[in-house]
Amino acid sequence: MRMTPDSPSLDVAAGERGVVRLFALNMPPEQARFLREPGAADQLLGVSGLDPDQIDIFNVADMEELGLSGYLSDGLGIPHDQVAASQSRIDGLTGWVMVLRSRAFQGQAMTLTPAASLTLTAQFHEPGTDWTATAMQTDSAKPFTAPRVPPRQARDQARRIGATLFAVVMALIVLVLALVIL
Predict the structure, then answer these.
(1) Complete DSSP assignment for the chain
(2) 94-142 per-position pLDDT tens digit
(3) How far is CA 83 from the centre of its chain?
(4) Can you say whether residue 32 is alpha, beta or left, with left for phi > 0 and alpha for psi between -120 and 50 degrees?
């Protein structure tokens, strides 16, 4: 995200991942509730095509003992040190807020022009997956290490399994017919 100094716009790069933006909503509660409708948040942010499932709009008072900080760290997985860095701003929020996740942009580049009633309060980065690992050194981890069964033996085994299943099914049918006749 880049905010230009001469305008209050926010640039979102194509393919952005793991960014969570917290906006304070300076508006009546009825208008804030309306932002939950599809397309309403798009209008307020000056864009179109946002995924409404990736936008949370709620009253901070509804968080009760969890609080907004708890929602961000425990609910969204934002690292505690990032939340602590913005703690004073987060704790100072009252009323309605909007949480906008990167997935809302659906991989598209966008330039947000938030309405005057929106204030970007904080921006967080979700931790990425750590894909590092040590290589497995066991023989069983190597490809093609299982003993190979000859094709003739595999066919014989498949025939035996099939014949056994056929015999079991036929025995059950005979048993059911015998019970019905008696």
Answers:
(1) -EE-TTS--EEE-TT--SEEEEEEE-S-HHHHHHTTSTTHHHHHHT-S---GGGEEEEEGGGGTTTHHHHIIIIIT---HHHHHHTHHHHHT--SEEEEEEGGGGTT--EEE---TTEEEEEEEEPPPP----PPP-SGGGSTT-SPPPPHHHHHHHHHHHHHHHHHHHHHHHHHHHHHHH-
(2) 999 999 999 999 999 999 999 999 999 999 998 877 778 787 788 777 7
(3) 19
(4) alpha
Q: Which two tokens stand for residue 31?
A: 């208008």
Tokens of 149: 């069964």
